[in-house]
Each structure stands twice: as structure tokens, then as C-alpha cells.
């Protein structure tokens, strides 16, 4: 029996060499490989102490430490940490995702993740960018012939031409083979991608179903405009439009009137679907607004009012006419989405019109940052400036959390949360201070402690 026992032990040593006390352990890897779906623990979320942190009201500091919700990843495709959003958004048909600056890698990552979550788990089917209504529609309809990068460059502004955002377009293309594709849309009156080059053919094809002669006239006129200046600099475009303003305005207003007069017939006869004449009409209307935008002598405020009013009208068109019944995600700068910018009625920025029409079904996120570096629209890098005392950034820093969310819509004012009910400073682009009552502008705040410039393509 003793000999049998010894034989068994020897066999086990050879069969399971890890049990051999004389065998060396394999060397540990120099760096730990972290899963892309890793969710940060409470300890991993803690931010380093800032020795230069500015003063914050004691009651505000105590409140934020007890009432924020941590977001445990900016990129993970598991969403257990985002489940808190479901009761906040379950009755909302429009969710707006802002950003205090366009050139922020972490904003891009966070928004792409939120879009995937909203599409997969909350029934949102449209992502609408602060980009051309025509360019985005055309890229979405023709995405089968494009790579994800080509789809992105054909549709949205170059400020989002990044490695982080192209992942969203990869996801959009993946979903197009599913029962619930994620639809790309835009709501700006300006051109933004490369798809505008296809606009003359698009107009001609739609119109030719009922009037081939007018279709050719529209094609020739719009092609001339595009060939001459449409893709040129704003200053060149402004000079051109100013020199031909009356002619251009008459032509494109006439085109809008043609679509309005013949819309039912066009929708019934155009083979690709009734949404194509609708986009043709709205694209022509957007050109009219763009011509107004470049009227000689307009100041920056008036130009902004024209653009934001047009964007609000185009977003209303997406919600009510092009995609009725669908839930829509909006991607834009904070300033366009603010509900009560400058206290005007209906308001200088798009958000004031949007909240007036859609308040019961709207939820707006403002995205802000504390420190690091970001990029301007020309991709030059700049440093995020330190906040002033009792500002939004100073308050949110005191939570000492890398990524956090604060709901404001459902708050009742108290001493601790009065920072969101009173006028305080918050930064645009991480360097320009603006005074606002935050709860009058947004429904929730997503705050990111440290940011970096995007990885541009």
C-alpha cells in the first residue's frame, strides 16, 4: 500500500507540474492587461488632490460628495453603471448630449458610449449631429457603399473627425444589418461633410419624377453654386452670396415653394421612398437660411440667431416629420442646447426653441471638464484654465471622482444644492467664464475631471 501511494504522488507531480515545489513560477507580465469592458472601482475613480483647488461653499461641497453618481467607464460596452439613467430617461423622446468644447477626447468617448447604451437598452433609434441635414441623410442612405471613416467624413464636421467618433460610425454600420438600425441624421443648415457634392443629382432625381425640365434647371443652378464656392472658406462664400444674393434667394425660395406645392405627388411617385422629397425640401429651405446667414453687414449675434433658429426648425422636422415616433439623440455644443441662454425668449440659441416645443419629452446633458488639455476647432492645443471659486467646476471637483453625473431636473432647492439654482460661473471651451443658473439650462451635468485632445484622423 505504501509503494502504491508513492507511485501515485510521483505521477501527480509529472501530470501537474505546477504542484512541483522545485519548479519556478512563471514570470508575471510587466504590465497588467485591462479589459476594455473594465468598470472602475470606487478606489480607481478617486482623483488626485489638487493643492491649488479653489474655495467652495461648505454646504455645496458636502452636498456634491453625497449626491453624485459615478460613471465607471467612458468606453466599456457593458452598462451596469449606467442603469441609473433609465428612470430619468424612460419617458423622454429626445436626449441632448452637449459638450463645453468640441476638441475633447473624453467627451467623444463618453457620448459614443451613451449613444450605444441608449440605442441598445432604451429604444433610441436616431443620432442627430450638429451637422448638415442633407449631408448626414445622404451618408446614412448610402452608407453601404462607404467605410465607417468615409461615412463620417461625408457627413459631420471635421471637429469630430477622430478615432473616438469613427467608432460610432463603425457601430452605426454594424446595426444596419439588424432589425433596429441606428440612423444618422443632422440638423444644421450649413454643409459639413463631403456629401453636399451629391446634392444637385439628389434634387434632379426627386424633381424629375414629375417635371424633367425643372429638374435639369435645378441641377444646373445648384451644380454651378457648388462648383463655384460651396466648399470654399466662409469669407469666399460670403462674398459670392452677397454679390448674387437676390438671384440666389429667389431661386431657392422658389425651389422650396415647388416642393411644398407638389409634396404629396412627389412622395407618392418617388420610388426610393417618401422621405427623399421631404429631405430635398428641407435641404432647399436650409440653403435659404444659409443665404440669410451671409447677408452683408450682419453682426455675429444676428448670424448666430439665424443659424440656431434654423437648427431648431430642422430638429423639429426630424422629430415630427421625418422620424415621427422615433426616439432621438442630439449631439451638439452646450451653447446650442442650453434652455435659457441669455434669458431671451425664444432665445439666442437653439435649445430655447427646442425646450419650448418639447419640454415634457426632453432631457439635456451639459458636459464639463476640470483640467487637462483640449483642441480648438483648428486643432491647435490649449490648456484648460483653473476654475474660479464657487464655480461649477470647483463644486464638481470636490466629489473627487474621475467621471460623475448629477441630475438637476428632479432636485428640490436646498442649502446644499443651491449652487444649481443660483447664478454661478461655468466654463465654455475650458477657458471662457459664463454666468448662468445651471438648472435653467440643463437637466443634468456629466463632469470629467481630466481631459485630452482627440486623436484626429
Key phrases:
457 residues, nine-stranded mixed sheet, alpha/beta, two-stranded antiparallel ribbon, 18 helices, disordered N terminus
β-strand percent reads 5-15%
Helix run count: 18
Structural class of the helices, strands and pairings?
alpha/beta
Low-confidence stretches: 1-30
Number of domains: 1
How big is the Rg? 27 Å
Q: Please count the beta strands (DSSP E, at least 2 residues each).
A: 11
Shape: globular
The H-and-E topology, N to C, reads as HHHEHEHEHHHEHHHHHHEHHEEHEEEHE
Distance between the termini: 72 Å
What composes the largest sheet?
9 strands, mixed
Helix content: 40-55%
Query: How much is the average pLDDT?
Result: 91
Outline the secondary-structure elements:
Layout: H1 2-15, H2 42-45, H3 58-67, E1 69-70, H4 85-89, E2 94-97, H5 105-122, E3 124-132, H6 133-141, H7 148-155, H8 163-175, E4 183-188, H9 199-207, H10 212-230, H11 234-243, H12 245-269, H13 275-293, H14 300-322, E5 327-331, H15 334-337, H16 350-358, E6 362-375, E7 381-383, H17 392-397, E8 403-407, E9 423-428, E10 432-437, H18 438-441, E11 444-451
Parallel strand pairs: 2-5, 2-6, 3-4, 3-5, 6-11
Antiparallel strand pairs: 1-8, 6-7, 8-11, 9-10
Amino acid at each position: 500500500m505504501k509503494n502504491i501511494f508513492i507511485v501515485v504522488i510521483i505521477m501527480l507531480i509529472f501530470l501537474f507540474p505546477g504542484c512541483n515545489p522545485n519548479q519556478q513560477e512563471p514570470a508575471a507580465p510587466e504590465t497588467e492587461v485591462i479589459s476594455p469592458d473594465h468598470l472602475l472601482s470606487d478606489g480607481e475613480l478617486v482623483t488626485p488632490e489638487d493643492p491649488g483647488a479653489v474655495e467652495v461653499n461648505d454646504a455645496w461641497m458636502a452636498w456634491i460628495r453625497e449626491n453624485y453618481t459615478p460613471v465607471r467607464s467612458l468606453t466599456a460596452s457593458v452598462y451596469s453603471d449606467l442603469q441609473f439613467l433609465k428612470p430619468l430617461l424612460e419617458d423622454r423622446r429626445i436626449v441632448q448630449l452637449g459638450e463645453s468644447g468640441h476638441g475633447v477626447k473624453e467627451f467623444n468617448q463618453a457620448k459614443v458610449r451613451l449613444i450605444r447604451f441608449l440605442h441598445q437598452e432604451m429604444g433610441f433609434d436616431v443620432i442627430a449631429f450638429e451637422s448638415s441635414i442633407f449631408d448626414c441623410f445622404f451618408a446614412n442612405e448610402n452608407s453601404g457603399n462607404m467605410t465607417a471613416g468615409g461615412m463620417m467624413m461625408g457627413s459631420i464636421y471635421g471637429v469630430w473627425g477622430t478615432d473616438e467618433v469613427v467608432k460610432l460610425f463603425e457601430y452605426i454600420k454594424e446595426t444596419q444589418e439588424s432589425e433596429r438600425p441606428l440612423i444618422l441624421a443632422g440638423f444644421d443648415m450649413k454643409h459639413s461633410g463631403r456629401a453636399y457634392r451629391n446634392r444637385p443629382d439628389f434634387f434632379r432625381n426627386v424633381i424629375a419624377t414629375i417635371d424633367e425640365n425643372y429638374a435639369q434647371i435645378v441641377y444646373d443652378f445648384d451644380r454651378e453654386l457648388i462648383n463655384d464656392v460651396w466648399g470654399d472658406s466662409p469669407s469666399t462664400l460670403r462674398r459670392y452670396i452677397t454679390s448674387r444674393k437676390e438671384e440666389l434667394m429667389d431661386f431657392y425660395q422658389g425651389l422650396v415653394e415647388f416642393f411644398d406645392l407638389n409634396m404629396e405627388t412627389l412622395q407618392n411617385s418617388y420610388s426610393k421612398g417618401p422621405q427623399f422629397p421631404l429631405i430635398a425640401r428641407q435641404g432647399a429651405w436650409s440653403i435659404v437660411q444659409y443665404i440669410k446667414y451671409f447677408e452683408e453687414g450682419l453682426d455675429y449675434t444676428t448670424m448666430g440667431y439665424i443659424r440656431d433658429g434654423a437648427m431648431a426648425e430642422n430638429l423639429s422636422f426630424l422629430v415630427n416629420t421625418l422620424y415621427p415616433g422615433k426616439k432621438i439623440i442630439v449631439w451638439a455644443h452646450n451653447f446650442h442646447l442650453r434652455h435659457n441662454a441669455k434669458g431671451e425668449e425664444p432665445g439666442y440659441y437653439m435649445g430655447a426653441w427646442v425646450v419650448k416645443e418639447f419640454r415634457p419629452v426632453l432631457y439635456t446633458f451639459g458636459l464639463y471638464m476640470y483640467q487637462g488639455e483640449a483642441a480648438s476647432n483648428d486643432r491647435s492645443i490649449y490648456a484648460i484654465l483653473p476654475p474660479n471659486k464657487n464655480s461649477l467646476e470647483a463644486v464638481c471637483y470636490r466629489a473627487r471622482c474621475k467621471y460623475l453625473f448629477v441630475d438637476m431636473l428632479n432636485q428640490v432647492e436646498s442649502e446644499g444644492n443651491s449652487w444649481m439654482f443660483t447664478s454661478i460661473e461655468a466654463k465654455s471651451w475650458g477657458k471662457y467664464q459664463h454666468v448662468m443658473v445651471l438648472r435653467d439650462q440643463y437637466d443634468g451635468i456629466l463632469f470629467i475631471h481630466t481631459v485630452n485632445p482627440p486623436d484626429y484622423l
